[in-house]
Amino acid sequence: MSRPAVHPVAPPPPSVHLGGGGGGEGGGGDVRVRMRDIEGMAGTPGGLTLRVCQVVFAVIALWIMASTSDFASATAFRFLVAASGLQIVWSLAAAATDVYALLVKRRYRNIKALGIFTCLDGVISTMTFSAACASAGITVLIDNDLDGCNVNHCVEFELATGISFLACFASLPSFLLNFWSLASTSRRT
Predict the structure, then answer these.
(1) DSSP line for 133-149
(2) Does residue 59 surpass a pLDDT of 60?
(3) Distance CA 66, CA 48 (A)
(4) Which of 6, 44, 84, 89 could staple 58 via S-S, CB 3.0–4.6 A?
(5) Handedness of CA 14, 15, 19, 21 (dihedral sign)
(6) Cα(178)–Cα(40) distance, rounded to whole angstroms?
(7) H-type helices in the chain, by residue range?
């Protein structure tokens, strides 16, 4: 009975085409290349900047809304305060992990960690967006339809709503870049 012999094979020289144009046998289409880090992804200076912007916008929106005496009169305004609070907590936690990743000079390559970042970024940005949309609707109702701005704080409500939209728009690139990173690092079967 004969047994197969295993002989070591040298890696191909760097000038070999790594693209997937050939397919078939020996086409070289299965070579994996690690994706480079794009600014804004988790663990990069751009990602930390986005997190700081999210925290700043959410804190300003929360402070403006909470400084009015009648924000609790509408459920949408209470939802905006709750969404801003969650945005602050999540963005501070994510910023802390970004600072840690920058200090140890490592990036997030773990699929589970990227999945958590992606899911929470998506949920929090959607919640902030929906709260800002609901608050904008109530503000338009009070201002245009009820002509109640003389007894309410319409300017503060409009300002807090606009800044909440900015917090949401600062959160969207984080979600999209983390989702792209998650999709590009997932295992192919």
Answers:
(1) HHHHHHHHIIIIIS--T
(2) yes
(3) 27
(4) 84
(5) negative
(6) 8
(7) 45-67, 75-103, 111-140, 154-185
Q: Confirm if 43 and 107 have CB atoms less than 8 A apart.
A: yes
State the residue for tokens 């109702």. 141
pLDDT tens sequence across 4-14: 555 566 666 66
Cα separation, 96 vs 102, in Å, equals 10
Does residue 169 carry a pLDDT above 80?
A: yes
Read off the pTM. 0.73
Torsion of CA 66, 72, 78, 84, to 10 degrees: 0
The alpha carbon of 84 is separated from its chain's Cα centroid by a whole number of angstroms, namely 15
H helix intervals, 141-185: 154-185
Distance, CA of 88 to CA of 95 (rounded, Å): 10
Spatial separation of the C-alpha atoms in residues 157 and 100, rounded to whole Å: 36
Tokens at residue 39, please?
């600014």
Going 74 to 76 to 77 to 78, the CA torsion angle's sign is: positive
